[in-house]
Automatic annotation (TrEMBL):
<keyword id="KW-0472">Membrane</keyword>
<comment type="similarity">
    <text>Belongs to the sterol desaturase family.</text>
</comment>
<feature type="domain" description="Very-long-chain aldehyde decarbonylase CER1-like C-terminal">
    <location>
        <begin position="448"/>
        <end position="618"/>
    </location>
</feature>
<keyword id="KW-0812">Transmembrane</keyword>
<dbReference type="GO" id="GO:0071771">
    <property type="term" value="F:aldehyde oxygenase (deformylating) activity"/>
</dbReference>
<dbReference type="GO" id="GO:0005789">
    <property type="term" value="C:endoplasmic reticulum membrane"/>
</dbReference>
<dbReference type="GO" id="GO:0008610">
    <property type="term" value="P:lipid biosynthetic process"/>
</dbReference>
<feature type="transmembrane region" description="Helical">
    <location>
        <begin position="323"/>
        <end position="341"/>
    </location>
</feature>
<dbReference type="InterPro" id="IPR006694">
    <property type="entry name" value="Fatty_acid_hydroxylase"/>
</dbReference>
<feature type="transmembrane region" description="Helical">
    <location>
        <begin position="122"/>
        <end position="141"/>
    </location>
</feature>
<keyword id="KW-1133">Transmembrane helix</keyword>
<keyword id="KW-0456">Lyase</keyword>
<dbReference type="GO" id="GO:0005506">
    <property type="term" value="F:iron ion binding"/>
</dbReference>
<dbReference type="InterPro" id="IPR021940">
    <property type="entry name" value="CER1-like_C"/>
</dbReference>
<dbReference type="InterPro" id="IPR050307">
    <property type="entry name" value="Sterol_Desaturase_Related"/>
</dbReference>
<dbReference type="Pfam" id="PF04116">
    <property type="entry name" value="FA_hydroxylase"/>
</dbReference>
<keyword id="KW-0256">Endoplasmic reticulum</keyword>
Length: 619
């Protein structure tokens, strides 16, 4: 049987739970229209407070996930995975509950109805009541929540979160948040009863309360250790994210709300608190990644698909959402700032076999890669990222789609030739990309139509297929480039490669491998039932309903991956682009060669078998 007040009444409503704010909104609108043209101030304040409180939690979450700023000051080094994100999906339930309580208090408590804008005495009264009542009340009740029945039925859910974040501060049961409402309400109501309450006090105390709660759960140390060494008494007056993280991990110490003084008096201070705080401030908790995937932004709207913008949005495959229109102008301005700043930044990370894998991003957008004057600047950023990884002793760095463009840097050859003593292995991952595409093709296929036929991937796919005695119609206008590839094939297989110059040549071919973007008109030449495989960025639009469209080459990471909480563009959870997976395999196998330039066709099957051996599976 479910314990009383251990679950939210609106758990099953999904996004429709926000309709519960409807009565407050209706009251504001009604009073504005019919009650002498003046909106109901208290209901309006409650709605504004809910919005501001939600913003505080979101901003702290964004700060935590700005790994390019916070990676050296993280308290727990693990990443936030999909399971935690799903658990905390409805972290804001407590705001709905407390908005109801706020409205109830207003309509049943006369002194709060006519508050001045500000009264400085109220701040002093609220501070005294907080220290004298709220802090000790929270401390003793919090300790009670760590005993048998209360912990099992209520508080264990909060402690089930492995990596605290600001949203974790809101993740709890209704009973816990009712208790927190009392703790937070005592100073405000007390000041109002004593005639010193004000609207400024309500806003200031509530928002500061949430700010400090989010700070403690942020998992990023923000308070310098030197401050506590210079002013030792501050250790008893304000807690730190490190201090609170020990409560989450060890559960039997550091029970205070915001003031460790009460842990001192209760004898529950963790002896490691301040030594660990010092170590984290000195960066001793920082880890060097073994593998780096150097990604890039596709367009302005997809640049919002990162954890430090909206963690829940980033945890789902990218698709256009209406809220992107609201954020787009800010994202566009951020793009301009990123161009000016031009620094590679850390987007996400995960652990595989206990080794750290990081995803870095070059601050360049898809269309820039096709601007001739931008080529040198982009290569400079990629080169700096490679040199930075080399200095950090990263083992393997894998290049994402456009970062290894043949016209840009020869598939990474430029950097390896320029820096011949690199310790880090530079990998384009295209060998596994080719393997994924080739293993998608049905074994009974005898003829294939290939666009982008003379590209790096197109060449490798054509040569591999002709060795399998499969006829390849290679769409290219350049006879010279076609003949060069044809000469690479074994003499007895060269006749399986056929140059074609028009789409009409594929009217009877039901297997297309697309390496060059196809317009809807060009797709009309495919016969009904055609299967489109593709390695083109961006992917082609699925125009034909009588045909089947494959996604970009991708692989699912092994089941033992840890801390992965971001979807890679349009890929499903746990699925990464094949070039990303190719770098992972390169690292797991311990290969010491660079994988740059032309694809070695002889290694396609080798890389494919290695991927399957390490638990990667076709997506």
């Amino acid at each position: 049987m479910v314990a009383l007040l251990s679950s939210w009444p609106w758990d099953n409503l999904g996004v429709y739970k926000y309709l519960l704010y409807g009565p407050l909104v209706a009251k504001v609108i009604y009073s504005s229209a019919w009650e002498q043209g003046k909106a109901d101030q208290w209901c309006l304040h409650i709605l504004i407070l809910c919005a501001l409180r939600g913003s505080i939690h979101q901003l702290w979450s964004s700060f935590h996930n700005m790994l390019f700023l916070t990676r050296r000051r993280r308290v727990l080094s693990d990443g936030v995975d999909f399971k935690q994100i799903d658990e905390e999906w409805d972290w804001d339930n407590f705001l709905i509950l407390q908005s109801f309580i706020g409205a109830l208090v207003y309509y049943s408590f006369l002194p709060i109805r006519k508050l001045p804008l500000w009264d400085p005495k109220g701040a002093i009264v609220a501070l005294l009541l907080h220290v004298g009542i709220s802090e000790p009340l929270f401390y003793w009740v919090h300790r009670a929540f760590h005993t048998g029945y209360l912990f099992t039925r209520y508080h264990s859910f909060h402690h089930s979160i492995p990596v605290p974040q600001s949203f974790t501060a809101g993740y709890g049961t209704p009973l816990e948040h009712l208790f927190l409402c009392v703790v937070m309400g005592v100073p405000i109501l007390g000041a109002c009863l004593l005639g010193t309450g004000s609207a400024g006090l309500v806003y200031g105390y509530v928002l500061l309360f949430d700010f400090l709660r989010c700070m403690g759960h942020s998992n990023v140390e923000v308070l310098p250790h030197g401050l506590f060494e210079a002013l030792p008494f501050l250790r008893h007056l304000i807690y730190t994210p490190t201090y609170h993280s020990l409560h989450h991990t060890e559960k039997n110490s550091n029970f205070c709300l915001f003031m460790p003084l009460f842990d001192v008096w209760g004898g529950t201070t963790n002896s490691k608190s301040w030594e660990l705080h010092k170590e984290i401030n000195e960066g001793k908790n920082d880890e060097v990644p073994d593998f780096v995937f150097l990604a890039h932004v596709v367009d302005v709207s997809s640049s919002i698909h990162v954890p430090f913008i909206c963690r829940t949005f980033g945890s789902m495959p990218y698709s256009f959402k209406p809220f992107l229109l609201v954020i787009w102008p800010a994202a566009f301005l951020t793009m301009l700032v990123m161009w000016a700043w031009s620094k590679t930044f850390l987007v996400s990370f995960y652990k595989l076999r206990g080794r750290l894998h990081q995803i870095w991003a070059v601050p360049r957008y898809g269309f820039q890669y096709f601007l001739p004057f931008a080529r040198d600047g982009i290569n400079d950023q990629i080169e700096l990222a490679i040199l930075r990884a080399d200095k950090m002793d990263v083992k393997v760095l894998s290049l994402a789609a456009l970062n290894k463009n043949e016209a840009l840097n020869g598939g990474g050859t430029l950097f390896v030739s320029k820096h011949q003593h690199l310790k880090v292995r530079v990998v384009h991952g295209n060998t596994l990309t080719a393997a994924v595409i080739l293993n998608e093709i049905h074994k009974d296929v005898k003829e294939i139509f290939l666009t982008g036929a003379t590209s790096k991937l197109g060449r490798a796919i054509a040569l591999y297929l002709c060795r399998k005695r499969i006829r390849v119609l290679m769409l290219t206008l350049s006879a010279e480039r076609f003949q060069k590839i044809q000469k690479e094939a074994p003499p007895e297989c060269q006749h399986y490669l056929v140059q074609v110059t028009k789409y009409q040549a594929a009217q009877s071919c039901k297997t297309w491998i697309v390496g060059k973007w196809l317009s809807p008109w060009e797709q009309t030449w495919a016969p009904p039932g055609t299967q489109f495989h593709q390695f083109v960025v961006p992917p082609i639009i699925g125009f034909r309903r009588d045909c089947t469209y494959g996604k970009l080459a991708a692989m699912r990471l092994p089941q033992d991956v840890q801390g992965l909480g971001m979807c890679e563009y349009t890929m499903d959870r746990g699925v990464v682009h094949a070039c990303h997976a190719g770098g992972v395999v390169h690292f797991l196998e311990g290969w010491t060669h660079h994988e740059v330039g032309a694809i070695d066709v002889d290694r396609i099957d080798v890389v494919w078998r290695a991927a399957l051996k390490h638990g990667l599976t076709p997506a």
